[in-house]
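Much of our argument rests on the idea that a fold can be written as discrete symbols. The amino acid sequence and the backbone structure tokens for this protein are reproduced below:

___
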Amino acid sequence: MVFVINKFIENKKQWFVIGAAMLMAVFAGAMSALLPWFVAVGLFAFAMVTLFIIRQPFIGILLIAFFLPFERLGAYEFGNTTIRVAQILLLITGLVWFLRLVWKRSYSFVRNPPLIPLSLFLVVVLASLTNALNIGRSVTVLIYVIFTASLAFVIPNLVVTKKQLQKVVIVLLVSFVLVSGFGLFQFLGDMTGLPQEVTGLRELYTKDILGFTRIQSTAYEPLYFANYLLIPIAILFALFLAGNNVIRSGWTIALFSLGVVNLVLTVSRGGYLALAVTLLLIGVIYFKKLFIVRNIVIIVIGTVVLFWVVLQTLGTGGELFTLDKFQEHVTNAFYGASYDERIETFDQAFIAWREYPIIGVGIGGFGPYVARHPYYIPHDGWRIVNNEFIEILAENGIIGLLLFMSVLFVLIVRSIKAIMVARDNYLRAIMVALLGVCLGIIIQYQTFSTLYVVHIWFLIGSMVACQNIIFNNQKKADVLLDANA
């Protein structure tokens, strides 16, 4: 008995988990007496999830992957800040992982070359605060950027095997199916007259505005939902062309079609262009497999069916909807009020850059710079450039832009090297897919400018993780060859 007790005491991790459980139980119990029952339930769920992450931080990555698209629905408005589940999970996972390192006194990290230019970029961002006109806003945006960018550091250190990467992909696809199904419901529900309280649509995207619904599913805007959809769509397309047996071809085609239909229904011009670039890159890399008879037949039939489904779905709009309206909205990239506003913000951004060419007007400082007063929030919110690279140039200067582009350059070059040496069919397919999404997002970044998007930094972290797994497998294979030589 004494021996058992001594062994139990020696297990510090077990004591830590039990102690944390007791504290959280007491906290949740106290809150249930002070707050409504649903808050108490939420706190209890939060406590349970935290315990799972404490025992295995990798679970936190899986949960983040699941909750990536839940930007608006499933989020909580706290003052002027939206608290999202993925952000809370990132905070818990990051803290737990860091505290485990401190507890074990082990500070070994995996290779992460993009982290060097990223760190320098964040230093420049920090220095740009000296030019900020609204220091409060700039500091807030800086915190958001550093917080979300931490995914590029945390994920590669927690996803270190092929099996773990496969689990992340599966969870991501499960979440994708759920939010895509909700997206279709959202479209059909709004087109047939269901109220916004049921569909969850913001008024700006209902059929009463354009004559057809722009779905956003659980995301904040259609363009963010389209941006997120690039990840599962690319993974499914790459796995289909690679001929991997992880998901059967029939299911792969069905899920791919579901994703494409949802992306089309976002009516996001940037999303369409990003999807085209993403699929084009994957098709080029898998050129030989793309043009075999079986795949050509499937792609042609699938394209015709998808086109018919989209037209039939859009046709539920009744008298308000016409194909001319839809075509006009999709193709008016170079005329109209939206185009004029975009050109105006570009001009203002270049003016700001010429005034502060080295480190810019401060992170998050473009809105205050062009506002009537830097501390007066316009009724329609702070203005943005709607082009990430031009906005970085204006807010962080030429140094910030070059460093940010260096992050992308290192990420892309390292991905290409990983693809070239990959011997595992599945890992190569995932790497190709993630690289395609990266290029697609770079293209879509010409039409919006938000740097602290969680799923984008999740993508970057996943790319580095996949690269490392491929390189590690290559080294192991080379060692075996040398041993057998």
